[in-house]
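User: Look at the shape:
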Amino acid sequence: MENRSIIWNRHKENIYHIMNSVEKTIQILNCLSDADRSLGITEISLKLSIPKSTVHRILSILLNYSLVSRERDTSRYRLGVQILKYSNSFYNSFDLRRYSKRVLKRTCLDTGLTTFLCIWQDGRGICIDSARSFQNPQMHHLFVDIGKIMPFHCAAAAKILLAYQSSEEIDRLIKNTSFQRYTFKTIVDPERLREHLNEIKSKGFAVCDEELEEGIRAISAPIRNFNGKTIASITITGLVNRITSVVFDQLVKTVVNAANEISQMIGYNK
């Protein structure tokens, strides 16, 4: 019993030290975030009443993970590029869902088609929100689950996102990908895909015409952030007898307008 008590007390002490280190780390990051300039170790130590040795140790770890950066000439610290990546990730996903929810649902109601939102992450199109149409019982199977990955060579939602990546990124992804043929319309030739992506970028929208699943069409448009970068796409999808040549132009206009509305909400100014 005594041994168990000793082990438990040591365990509690370890937890306390870990939590104490985490708290100090957060305090240091907040201190750098609140400052309007870079700070030295002594300044941080005085501001937070944390020993200089502890501040130095924590900053060294944060530096290894690019959470802070150190100026070579002054050895002062400021927040690092990884913090920007975290904030961009939050901005592109969490905030985007909140801002686009109303537009997503309205587009679904106006078109009677399943409507979903995708972001570009690690060379893939990933669904982060979806609105299902209940106007037609046959449409239920077209609901797109959150987290679903869209193949960029055939899904409109991912093709539009890839089309607006840098030429280097497009080349890298095409060279390192084996393209699966989902239907007889699926583009599997790399050069044909490059041409197709150029066409998409020129038009400003993408179409999946039974390339991912027979009998299914989709139309997608790009969503841009405050600096004009394409960060997401909004897509409508339905049976081919719902997305016909008769209504195609109007549906494209609806999707593009929805994408532009969301873009303006998050700071894009055309």
Q: What stands out?
A: The chain has two domains: 2-79, 85-265.
